[in-house]
């Protein structure tokens, strides 16, 4: 320990010293109990050293979330649709500045931000599709890197915020998310899932990662060896690994991977988890588990020091210990005009024009509009939104742009009365003015309204209240009172009109109408109970509840038909509510647009062929657009969503968003949600061989563009290429030039085409610009399972330049020298079971609880593994397998007969207790393809051959 006098600050307070020395000094001053306390998300203050409390975790996916009013930018998938790294970097800067400004007012706001989400949008039914950027690892890492750079700031020493990437690793389903294992073969792991994380971490603006709830290859992500084997090798910085909420307890409670919490906590800490997010603000359980693990010899104080060091590294970089030197300490930029303008710019750039076959768009001046649909007058928040200070809906944007006198509106919902068996109707009592809690600009504050019990519950009377019955699909309904409030159920079980929007971890504003006798029961989805009518008001009940008659006052389709028939153009605004039918904890079940919205769209098209469909959604839909002249998509665009969409429709802005993921035409095109093998399952634009509804990278413009003059050369291990793009239209517009590559004669399955670079550029009419890309040879590599590393195969590669993955304008072939393949030297090295070239009906499982992979057949099926080009030298006379469980392995060469059967006897102690079994075999000299058939509950780790 360094010596200092009472008048001399200790070395950890000296800003002239390197952070590493300061952390060493501070660690030496902390007691073991103090260091253990740091391991929980809510680390307590150490008053004797003047160290403040610290909390890991502040949600900031597209603005500061959960901390009240903040600037709200488009959802992450919308930011991905901009294909604009400079824009996204500026959004990150704005979010980090608002984080600092809010922190100055409220110390509950954290500077360790849990953003961005870099999970790849492999499957469009994933409930959290809105949180990712793209299905492509290159685009995802480019956008994520831009966002983290903005969050970090550009000071060489001190970070404005410390971003943590979510969710490590291969996490793309909510169904059984804490117990399901993603089977990820080595090629998919290295070429796909790890890649988005790696390129973002290597860019140097990431403070750490958060492991996902799921398991990968049979092992929970919170004890993943990949944290040590891959993540921490990508940078010299100390990366902070923060657990997801409740995940440490899941290791025992739901996953049953460990027998005790002490064992699980020790395993997670040793694997690399540095901060445990569990049991809310109560740190006692985690700290008790750590102490128990120490007492049992599962951990040492040095292990704890390693984790605390990583936490302190982040805290020092955030300037916590150098307030006088921190350049961000006085940042007060919050809801500035610049931030409002940026929110609008981002929303405009995120709009994708999917179709414009009749030139209906942009809308001509003076057009009489009918604006219809469930999202037409909505500005939706999602689970990771801040409270809106400003908001604009499509209706408001079009009213402002075209004049309210030229715009007619029909929401398209059924207006109903609910009649009780006693002949009375449900009634919403009027709330006193004093009961209303209003936020910024007079908007009802959902955080203060939802769940309130001081408002009167619904009653019944002779006339009743007319409700808007909003059908979100799959039987999920919301009921809205005339004043705009949604019916909600609070903890006391009463039904009130008390929510500005559906929301919350458990949504309390959704219901189902269930046919019963001559009417309907009304089931509250949040509690699972039916609604009953009592003398003191409506409430949820354990029994069957009240039988209601639904009296339709006005059909939504009739309202749409009426206004559509009187307009020049109809704009149907359809999509989803981010809290209903697809969100965290809930995957979607179909790509189809909800039936009610399909009916509204059909009614509009029947009444008026000049119908534009504007989809505002967190994910793709499969929509029959054959009779639609125009179609657009945007994510929920934050506070400026409506203004942005109106400006694009009016032609004030030429659309230039591009799809960040494939839009499939039908559910039949989709793989199983839990099939993570993008190569074998032919998933995403990289491998999909069908015809998509709209391809990856697709997006139209109000201008047209020429591509000319592609030149290429390979020099010093880099492909240099250039071409020109010209605006041949008559409006200023952005174009997104996209560069793809493909191996022309691959020896293993390779992508049909793969994004290597892109550039968004603004061009005036007649303007031409040169675009140049430099592509490293590593962009052409694949993971060679035989050699266990990335390799560029020699041969011809096609360079494709164009406006989307399918709209290719320029091509050229180049020859790359690369490294030739070599046969597997199986007589010397054997075979790791997971390093197969191909497989059927198998899954990868954990070899041990700490490292390694094995392969098992899918339950009830015969699995098969194929290993190509195995060099047996002078031949083999024996085979040995290392396996656990029971069952058998059958060896054959190529398509030949079974040459050997190895039977694993039952009775091994457990799934991680391996035995070796040998058998004679005759394998001729030379190179052969090896097939291994697997039967029964066997876990195969390795195969070896002997002469």
UniProtKB/TrEMBL annotation:
Domain CBM6: 829-946
SMART domains in the record: CBD_IV, Fn3_like
InterPro entries for this protein: Actin-crosslinking, BXL, CBM6, Cellulose-bd_IV, Fn3-like, Galactose-bd-like_sf, GH, Glyco_hydro_3_C
Top-level taxonomic group: Bacteria
Pfam families named among the record's database cross-references: CBM_6 (PF03422), Fn3-like (PF14310), Glyco_hydro_3 (PF00933), Glyco_hydro_3_C (PF01915)
Biological process per Gene Ontology, one example term: arabinan catabolic process
One function term, GO molecular function aspect: xylan 1,4-beta-xylosidase activity
CDD domains named in the record: beta-trefoil_FSCN_BglX-like, CBM6_xylanase-like
Alphabetical keyword list: Hydrolase, Signal
PANTHER family to which the protein is assigned, alphabetical: BETA-D-XYLOSIDASE 5-RELATED, SUGAR HYDROLASE-RELATED
Family to which the UniProt record says this protein belongs: Belongs to the glycosyl hydrolase 3 family.
Function: Catalyzes the hydrolysis of a non-reducing terminal alpha-L-arabinopyranosidic linkage in ginsenoside Rb2 (alpha-L-arabinopyranosyl-(1->6)-alpha-D-glucopyranosyl) to release alpha-D-glucopyranosyl (Rd). It is not able to hydrolyze alpha-L-arabinofuranosyl-(1->6)-alpha-D-glucopyranosyl (Rc).
Protein name: Exo-alpha-(1->6)-L-arabinopyranosidase
């Amino acid at each position: 320990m360094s010596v200092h006098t009472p008048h001399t600050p200790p070395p950890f307070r000296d800003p002239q010293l390197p952070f590493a020395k300061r952390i060493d000094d501070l660690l030496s001053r902390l007691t073991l109990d103090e260091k253990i306390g740091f391991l929980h998300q809510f680390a307590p203050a150490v008053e004797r050293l003047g160290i403040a409390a610290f909390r890991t975790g502040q949600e900031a996916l597209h603005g500061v979330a959960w901390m009240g009013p903040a600037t709200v930018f488009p959802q992450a998938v919308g930011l991905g649709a901009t294909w604009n790294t400079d824009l996204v970097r500026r959004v990150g800067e704005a979010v980090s500045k608002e984080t600092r400004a809010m922190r100055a007012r409220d110390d509950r706001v954290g500077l360790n931000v849990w953003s961005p989400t870099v999970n790849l949008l492999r499957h469009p039914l994933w409930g959290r599709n809105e949180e990712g950027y793209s299905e492509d690892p290159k685009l995802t890492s480019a956008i994520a890197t831009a966002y983290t750079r903005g969050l970090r700031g550009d000071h060489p020493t001190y970070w404005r915020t410390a971003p943590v990437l979510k969710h490590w690793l291969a996490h793309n389903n909510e169904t059984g998310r804490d117990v399901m294992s993603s089977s990820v073969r080595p090629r998919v792991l290295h070429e796909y899932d790890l890649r988005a994380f790696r390129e973002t971490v290597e860019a140097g603006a990431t403070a750490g990662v958060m492991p996902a709830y799921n398991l990968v290859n049979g092992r929970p992500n919170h004890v993943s060896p990949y944290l040590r084997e891959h993540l921490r090798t990508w940078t010299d910085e100390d990366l902070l690994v923060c657990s997801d909420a409740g995940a440490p307890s899941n290791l025992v409670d739901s996953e049953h991977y460990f027998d005790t919490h002490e064992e699980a906590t020790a395993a997670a800490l040793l694997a690399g988890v540095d901060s445990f997010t569990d049991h809310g603000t109560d740190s006692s359980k985690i700290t008790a588990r750590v102490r128990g693990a120490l007492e049992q010899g599962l951990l040492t104080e040095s292990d704890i020091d390693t984790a605390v060091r990583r936490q302190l590294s982040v805290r020092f970089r955030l300037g916590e210990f150098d307030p006088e030197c921190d350049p961000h300490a006085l940042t007060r930029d919050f809801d500035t005009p610049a931030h409002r303008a940026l929110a609008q710019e981002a929303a405009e750039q995120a709009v994708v024009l999917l179709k414009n076959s009749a030139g209906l768009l942009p809308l001509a001046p003076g057009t009489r509009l009918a604006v219809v649909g469930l999202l037409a007058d909505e500005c939706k928040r999602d689970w990771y939104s801040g409270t809106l200070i400003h908001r604009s809906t499509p209706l408001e944007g079009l009213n402002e742009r075209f004049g309210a006198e030229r715009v007619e509106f029909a929401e398209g919902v059924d207006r109903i009365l609910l009649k009780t068996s006693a002949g009375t109707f449900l009634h919403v009592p009027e709330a006193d003015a004093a009961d209303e809690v209003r936020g910024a600009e007079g908007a009802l504050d959902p955080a203060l309204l939802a769940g309130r019990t001081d408002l009167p519950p619904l009653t019944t009377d002779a006339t009743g209240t007319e409700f808007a019955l909003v059908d979100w699909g799959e039987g999920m309904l919301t009921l809205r009172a005339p004043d705009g409030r949604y019916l909600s159920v609070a903890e006391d079980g009463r039904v009130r009109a008390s929510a500005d929007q559906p929301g919350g971890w458990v949504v309390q504003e959704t219901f189902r109408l269930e046919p019963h006798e001559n009417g309907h029961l009304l089931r509250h989805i949040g509690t699972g109970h039916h609604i009953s009518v009592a003398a003191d008001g409506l409430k949820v009940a354990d029994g069957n509840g009240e039988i209601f008659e639904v009296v339709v006052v006005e059909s939504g389709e009739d309202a749409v038909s009426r206004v559509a028939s009187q307009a020049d153009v109809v704009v149907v605004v359809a999509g989803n509510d981010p809290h209903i039918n697809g969100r965290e904890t809930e995957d979607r079940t179909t790509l189809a647009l909800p039936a009610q919205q399909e009916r509204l769209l059909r009614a509009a098209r029947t009444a008026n062929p000049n119908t534009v469909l504007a989809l505002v959604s967190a994910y793709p839909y499969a929509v029959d657009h054959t009779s639609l002249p125009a179609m657009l998509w945007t994510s929920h665009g934050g506070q400026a969503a409506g203004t942005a969409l109106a400006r694009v429709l009016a032609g004030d802005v030429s659309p230039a968003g591009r799809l960040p993921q494939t839009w499939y035409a039908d559910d039949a095109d989709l793989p199983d949600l839990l099939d993570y093998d993008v190569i074998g399952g032919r998933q995403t634009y990289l491998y999909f061989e069908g015809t998509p509804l709209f391809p990856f990278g697709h997006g139209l413009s109000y201008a047209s563009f020429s591509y000319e003059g592609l030149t290429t050369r390979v020099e010093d291990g880099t492909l240099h290429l250039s071409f020109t793009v010209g605006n041949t239209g008559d409006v200023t517009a952005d174009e997104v030039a996209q560069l793809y590559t493909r191996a022309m004669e691959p020896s293993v399955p390779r992508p049909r085409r793969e994004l290597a670079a892109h550039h968004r550029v603004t061009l005036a009419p007649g303007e031409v610009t040169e675009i140049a890309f430099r592509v490293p040879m590593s962009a052409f590599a694949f993971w060679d399972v035989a050699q266990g590393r990335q390799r560029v195969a020699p041969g011809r590669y096609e360079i494709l330049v164009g406006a989307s993955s399918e709209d290719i304008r320029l091509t050229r072939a180049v020859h790359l020298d690369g490294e030739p393949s070599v046969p597997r030297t199986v007589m010397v090295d054997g075979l790791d079971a997971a390093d197969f070239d191909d497989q059927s009906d198998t899954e990868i499982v954990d070899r041990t609880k700490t490292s390694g992979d094995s392969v098992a057949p899918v339950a009830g099926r015969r699995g098969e593994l194929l290993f190509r080009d195995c060099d047996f030298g002078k031949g083999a006379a024996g085979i040995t397998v290392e396996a656990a469980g029971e069952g058998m392995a059958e060896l054959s060469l190529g398509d030949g007969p079974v040459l050997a059967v190895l039977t694993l006897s039952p009775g091994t102690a457990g799934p991680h207790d391996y035995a070796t079994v040998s058998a004679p075999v005759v394998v001729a000299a030379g190179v052969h393809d090896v097939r291994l058939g697997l039967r029964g509950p066997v876990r195969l780790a390795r195969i070896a051959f002997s002469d």
